[in-house]
Amino acid sequence: MDLVIKDTRVIDGTGGASYRADVKLADGRIAEIRPEGTGPRPTAPRTLDGDGLALAPGFIDMHAHSDLALLRDPDHSAKAAQGVTLEVLGQDGLSYAPVDDRTLAQVRQAITGWNGDGSDIDFDWRTVGEYLDRLDRQGIAVNAAYLVPQGTVRMYAVGWDDRDATPAELEHMKRLVAQGMEQGAVGMSSGLTYTPGMYAKDAELTELCRVVASYDGYYCPHHRSYGAGALDAYREMVELTRDASCSLHLAHATMNFGVNKGKGGDLLALLDDALASGADISLDTYPYTPGATTLVAMLPSWANEGGPDATLARLQDDDTAERIRRHVEELGADGCHGVPIEWDTIEVSGVSDPALASCVGKTIARAAAERGEAPWVTARRLLIADRLGSTILQHVGHEDNVRAIMQHRVHTGGSDGILQGFKPHPRAYGTFPHYLGHYARDLGVLSLEETVAHLTSRPAARLRLPDRGLVREGYRADLVLFDPETVAAGSTFEAPRTLPVGIPHVLIDGRFVIEDGRRTDVLAGRSVRRTVSA
Q1: Helical H runs in 158-217?
Q2: Model confidence over 480-527: pLDDT tens digits?
């Protein structure tokens, strides 16, 4: 479809001043940009009036959990309606490729809270390349890139044991990472507070990062602590990737819990020092204070050794469960970032068993009070009854840290959006309009032009995409038109699945995915694969 978008305000993704122009699209690319008053206006069989709207590159979600949602829900308005045209999957070290039959069954159970149990999905792939082929064959709402999940790789090659990998197992993991990169992955992720990935020591991670670096990919760790010792955990990742000569992208980079109140500047100073020494570092954040994860993730790592069935067996044993409680409530479990858990900050956002729906929307502390029992008793009962499938919101963030980090020059946007559950975090449906409306327009934390750059060209540069992330002639026509005066997240903590307002049009490869505020039936998304060979 050839199309001219007339009289629009172009926010081109560079961070520079916006300007008024006509923009012509042809054959899925930006064919011509004609700034106002500079010459003959372009023509095409179809025109769209862009007066009053801003035209920007499509937004890139650097931290998405849509690995099964893209296959399950062709509509995928949760992201398409936000102006997202590309998501990066395979996050936090746990996803569905590469796997064998045993590993697939285990990872499906381990991240049921993130993606559902997958009983409605035909898992007809085992490798990274086969997964990406499946996305292309089926057709998806938005584009998708993939990170090799280090936890899944360790599950495949080593299992769930808390021990060093043998030399043969390490070589197996390196081959799996190399194969994933050769098949199109853009890098490798880790979840270093999630088992079994967290059992890997730095030497093992460094060897895997050297493989990633040989393909010009990047390492995306959910590092070992966002609470007690957070700065040391960030420093560990900086030093590890320096040793491996690997680019680093810090996942959902926050400074949470009471111990880190007001310490966002300390993290940024650490990053500035590393950047000044030549390190290649970027990060992503979501524009909210609460986090989201699974309830089982709060347990100490030793309680999860051996996999989900072993965890359930430990919870069902009274003596072992009491030992778990002591670590969680008194000592500060590594799963809860070394901080003793505060049950009034843990809100149940979703359950796998509909019979447990009465828990959703309540903190563990409130649910326990209603039952007249201790919070741990309630949490333990829920973990067992829901077979570890419960998701939570964790209200432990600090607004000053959120604002400080989002202003940094290497910052990008990532929703970390979990689409499962009765009451998911509103970031899944609202991250990108919330940046544009609340933080840029309403609060002025960033200018609109800067905000768009954070959400477009910066992530495109991290992904090494040569023709995305800018409104520029010859670039792919992955574009969003929004109203700067009205754009806003519709999603709230009370109504988290509400779609945004002020984003009437979204195009991928020049095809309308959102038109006049409504989802079309177009499936223009495809896998976006790294093509560099080692």
Answers
A1: 167-182, 202-214
A2: 999 999 999 999 999 999 999 999 999 999 999 999 999 999 999 999
Contact (Cβ atoms closer than 8 angstroms) between residue 353 and residue 385:
yes
Contact by Cβ (8 Å): 525, 70: yes
For the stretch 243-293, pLDDT in tens is: 999 999 999 999 999 999 999 999 999 999 999 999 999 999 999 999 999
Residues sharing a CB contact under 8 Å with residue 435, sequence separation 6 or more, in sequence order: 287, 406, 413, 446, 451, 454, 455
What type of residue is 144? A
Question: Which strand (E) or helix (H) includes residue 262?
Answer: none
Q: What is the pLDDT of residues 140-171, one digit of tens each?
A: 999 999 999 999 999 999 999 999 999 999 99
Helices 230-244 and 264-276 pack at an angle, to 10 degrees, of 20
Q: What is the DSSP letter of 296?
A: G
The tally of CA atoms less than 13 A away on the side-chain side of residue 376 is: 15
Please answer whether residues 141 and 76 qualify as being in contact, where contact means their C-beta atoms are separated by less than 8 angstroms: yes
Tokens describing residue 264: 């966002």
3-state secondary structure 269-301: HHHHHHHHCCCCEEEEECCCCCEEEEHHHHCCH
| Structure-block tokens of residue 273 | 């020092």
Q: How many CB atoms lie within 10 A of CB 305?
A: 18
Token pair 């992201």 is found at: 79
- Helix %, strand %, coil % of the chain (to 5): 40, 20, 40
Cα–Cα nearest to 390, from 352, 357, 364: 352
Distance between CA atoms of 255 and 261, rounded to whole angstroms?
7
For the record, the structure tokens of 419 come out as: 């689409």
Count CA within 13 A, CB hemisphere, residue 114.
Answer: 25
Using the structure block, give the residue that is written with the tokens 């009274």: 318
How far is it, in rounded angstroms, from Cα 50 to Cα 265? 40
Beta carbons of 107 and 150 less than 8 angstroms apart = no
Q: What SS3 state is found at 426?
A: coil
Question: In degrees, to the nearest 5, what angle opens at C-alpha 480 toward C-alphas 476 and 482?
Answer: 160
Count of C-beta atoms within a 10 Å radius of residue 184: 18
Which residues contact residue 334 at a Cβ distance below 8 angstroms, ignoring those fewer than 6 apart? 193, 198, 224, 225, 300, 301
Contact between 92 and 219 (Cβ < 8 Å): no
Enter the tokens of residue 109.
């159970």
Q: Which of 90-94, 289-293, 450-454 has the lowest mean pLDDT?
A: 289-293
Are residues 422 and 357 in contact, defined by beta-carbon separation less than 8 angstroms? yes
335-337-343 Cα angle (round to 5)? 80
What is the C-alpha to C-alpha distance for residues 369 and 59, in angstroms, rounded to an integer?
Answer: 43
For residue 415, the SS3 value is coil
State the Cα–Cα distance between residues 38 and 40, nearest whole angstrom.
Answer: 7
